[in-house]
Every structure is written in structure tokens, then in C-alpha cells.
Amino acid sequence: MIDLHCHILPGVDDGSRSSRVSLAMAAMAEDSGVTDIAATPHFQYDLQDAAGAKQRMAELTETLQARLKADGLSLRLHVGAEILCTPQTPELLRRGLLPTVGGSRYLLVEFMFDTPAEEIDDMLLRLEAEGVRVLLAHPERYHDVQEQLEYLVRWFRRGVILQCNKGSILGSLGHRSQRTAHWMLDHGLAHVVASDAHTERVRTPHMAEVKAFLEESWGEEYADVLLTRNPARILQDRAVVSPDGEW
Ligand SMILES: [Fe+2]
Asked: 193: CA distance to ligand 1 center in Å?
């Protein structure tokens, strides 16, 4: 499995607090069958600070990768970030200041949970106009989207890549997120499932349970697309597949 959304870098956001925690997270992920992780800390920097932050994250990823290797882990890390969308985001993107997932055209973006769906839609259009492929983090958690599911269909049809959280699917992020995630899976609207892990204790990078649940509820083929095939394609900068084929 390949986890494209994980707060495993130490000391940069509300995820891992230390190298010790990062190592524990990596070992746990590897134990559960994960081969690759995109290190995606929250990215909330303005025009002045973004270049430095991007550089620092790349260096931290390299340093952590060396630690993992020294510890005997074979897990591969990839650069990335979870970009909190603001009115400045398109400009940051234009200037090449935002880390994409593994250096591909795919950009992992998030919004505040109470952002109106219309505003999310508008921002996604602006980012698409810059030629980037948007990988939308946990759409099932946005309050407005939970009430207006038609936005998910609209984004899916437009080619926005929809990433559901493990915790939403398993129910640890609340009933509304779970209901929305399951609706997406029922309708084949989810492209990717990721851990969005923050520690080795709560919201963990252990992926075996969600894999088993996905296989049992939506079939082995779709589970494989969500957990392995689409994440691999994104890292390779290729088009993703739906349960029905490529598009
Ligand atoms: Fe996240």
C-alpha cells in the first residue's frame, strides 16, 4: 500500500512531535503493509516564507528517510504537503512555491471544515486553471459537502481526485464523515484512501484494518485501486483509474 497523506515529518505541524514518533509511525505503517508514504505536513505559508518552507520540508524528508534506512526500515518517503487553500494559493502555485505529491502534477489541498462548498468549488476551478491536478484531502469532512453531496459528483466528473481518510471510513472521525465517505465508496467516487495520520497512537498510519474493511465492503479490486494502484499512479504522475477503468 501507498499512503499519500501522512503527517510523519517531525516538528513541523500538529503531526509527529519528534524523530522517535516519526520512526514509530514508519515502523507501524511498514508492519501493516505500507511500502511508501508521502510526507504531507500542513502547509500554511505566505509568499515570503513558502520557498524556505518548501526547501526545509524536502530536507527533513531526506533526513528522516536516512534515519529509517539506518533503523532497518525499507519504507520509502516522498516529498509532499497538505496545502491549506487561501486566496494566495494560486499565486504560490504559479511561482512554483508549493510542494506537490512526490514532485508530480498532483497537489494535495485542504480547506477549513466550515468553508462553503461554493467557495471550495471556486478555488478548485482556479487551481485547475493553473494546470495542476487537485488531490482533494478528505472531502467527506467538509460540513457543507456532507449536506450537498452533488458537489462530490461535480468534482469527480471534472477530474478532481478525491481522497478519503481511513478514520472517516472506520468511523473514528464522526458519524457524518463516515456516512459521507461510505456514500462516496458506494458510488465509486473515491479515488484514494490515506491515513492522514498524526501520531503512532491516535489517527495512526496503520492501514491493515481499513484495507480489510474496504475489501469486505466494496471488494478487493476497488480496495486495491484506492490503497495501491491510484496512489502509485499519482507518484508516477500518471492518470488515475476508476473502478470501471482509466480516465
Ligand atoms: Fe492532513
From this structure: 12
Compute the distance from residue 7 Cα to the ligand 1 centre, in Å: 7
Q: Where are the domains of the chain?
A: 2-238
Q: Which of 79, 60, 73, 76 is nearest to 23 (CA)?
A: 73
Instruction: Give me the DSSP letters along the chain.
Output: -EEEEE--STTSSSS--SHHHHHHHHHHHHHTT--EEEE--EE---TTTHHHHHHHHHHHHHHHHHHHHHTT--PEEE---EEEP-TTHHHHHHTT-S--GGGSSEEEEE--TT--HHHHHHHHHHHHHTTPEEEEE-GGG-HHHHH-THHHHHHHHHTPEEEEEHHHHHTTT-HHHHHHHHHHHHTT---EEE--B--SSSS-S--HHHHHHHHHHH-HHHHHIIIIIHHHHHHTT---EETTEE-
Q: Which CATH class name applies to 2-238?
A: alpha beta
Cα 14 to ligand 1 centroid, rounded to whole Å: 9
- pLDDT profile of the chain (247 residues), mean per 10: 98 96 98 98 94 96 98 98 96 96 98 97 96 97 98 96 98 97 96 97 96 97 97 97 62
